[in-house]
Fold each of these.
Amino acid sequence: MSKAIIHTDAAPAAVGPYSQAVSAPAGKLVFLSGQIGLEPGTGELVSENFEGQVRQSFANMQAVIEAAGGTLNDIVKLTLFLTDLSKFASANAIMAEIIPQPYPARSTLGVASLPKGAQFEVEAVLAL
């Protein structure tokens, strides 16, 4: 099976041994690594504000999707990670603003912590 590595400077560089996204085989499926609310230019969290981090995470995800040749409509599965599940309704409302209907499948997980002290992370699978 062949795979292609997807990278864009419009989203933060990987902060570990992983790629922003990988497509396989031959561009049919694209697996995006998780995106947190980092500003692409600085690599720092956009703010301490949860909603700001959620919006930046989705913006970073969209930049990687576009680098892979896709759109938000190509998402078939999202996974959301929150360090505080009491903020789920806020993340859900922002997602509903950004992701077009019909919505993709989704899982939401509560986690103890995320890289760089982030409060939110999103990852996606695309079908192109």
Amino acid sequence: MVEDPLATADCLQITREVGFDSLLSRAHPYTTSCPLPFQADSVKTARDVTRDTLHNWGLPELSDDAALVVSELVTNAVRYTRGHHGLTLLLMRVAPHVLLAVADPSDEVPTRKEPDFISENGRGLYIVETYSQCWGWDPLDRGGKAVWALFRTER
């Protein structure tokens, strides 16, 4: 649930102004970017990078929820995207928010399904929605998309 819609809008406006293409291609302050191959162990790498980055930013309280969300975003990208280009994990600190994004080469729009709690899959975006403040996706100029989730920090 969005607690502060104006702060959320400000954060998302920043990503729109800078653009995910720019964030993914150049170093920016308070931004971590990590290329990931299309393989299952990329999920663990993404979790580790997320935890380490949040600890370095002094935000260890976000690490469990953020690592879970990143796991779902990377799992979805690996499972549903086919291509020769890799994935990119992006973490961006825009106080009082942290933005997590996974870029992939697919133009297919992510669609949240009603979760089937008996099935072994199909709950990814439900989990992302539950644990983050909000989520969405942006198309990339080069093709593909960045699926993102926004977290509000305690501080």
